[in-house]
Design a protein that fits this description.
This protein has two domains: about 120 residues, no CATH class; about 110 residues, 3-Layer(aba) Sandwich (Rossmann fold), CATH 3.40.50. The protein is an alpha/beta fold. The protein has a five-stranded parallel beta sheet with strand order 2-1-3-4-5, with helices on both faces. The protein has eleven helices and five strands; from the N terminus they run ααααααβαβαβαβαβα. Helices cover about 50% and strands about 10% of the residues.
């Protein structure tokens, strides 16, 4: 919005076109239209956005274009490619890049593009964790930092079942000290989720049972946290 009026005036000066009578009103109308259209684009979910902010800005050039045409100013010479791309841009006003609008507008446009790409890429891959120990959670979150993986904590097997109805984690971690550990391992295994169980080093029976229920591995807690990175899936 802030770039609209200064940009149009700058383009006219660049081409040696004298501002005609009525240009100020056209720019004012263009600003109102641009504000409303940008709001209409950016206030809906990314998947429903059919135009980029730059395309909206380009379309807003019709307001100064109509003012120039009404004043009888000859149209600008344009190459065939530009005519085919933007046939209504008779005075060569439309920017081909948001960089032409200044650094602030360019950075805002980049931020919009990054946010849209992330939204359309879907939710980040996640590592599920069935446990209640907050210290364990903190250590797992630290291990996931920079991997592109989110931690998906479950406090009960019911939480796990509800979550699995939405999407699958790339890895399931189960604390064998949790009361739902056996059911959790069974549910993850049936869902085809690679599962690692960890627990007290003295509880060999629980570790054997975890493997029997479908865990890929069951190891002492200390060993798990000493080498947690080796159990995480590699992201490409």
């Amino acid at each position: 919005m802030a770039a609209f009026r200064p940009y149009v005036i700058h383009r006219l000066v660049e081409q040696g076109i004298e501002a005609p009578e009525g240009l100020d009103d056209a720019l004012r109308d263009g600003e109102v239209w641009l504000r409303d259209e940008l709001a209409a684009v950016t206030e809906v979910p990314f998947a429903e956005q059919r135009r980029s902010p730059l395309e909206v800005f380009q379309e807003a050039m019709r307001f100064p274009t109509e003012a120039l045409s009404a004043s009888g100013i000859p149209e600008s010479a344009r190459d065939p490619a530009a005519v085919e791309l933007l046939p209504g841009d008779r005075y060569n006003l439309a920017p081909v890049s948001s960089q032409a609008l200044g650094e602030s507008a360019w950075r805002a446009h980049l931020a919009w593009g990054v946010a849209k790409a992330r939204a359309l890429a879907g939710p980040a891959a996640a590592v599920g964790w069935l446990g209640r120990d907050l210290m364990d959670r903190s250590r797992i979150e630290n291990a996931l930092e920079g991997t592109g993986l989110d931690l998906w904590p479950w406090t009960s097997v019911e939480d796990m079942k509800q979550a699995l109805e939405e999407r699958q984690p790339v890895l399931g971690l189960v604390d064998l000290a949790h009361s739902d550990a056996d059911d959790g391992i069974r549910v993850l295994a049936e869902a085809g989720v690679r599962t690692i169980a960890f627990g007290p080093h003295v509880d060999d029976v629980a570790m054997v049972r975890a493997r029997t229920l479908g865990a890929e591995d069951a190891i002492p807690r200390s060993r798990f946290f000493a080498s947690i990175g080796s159990y995480l899936p590699r992201r490409t």
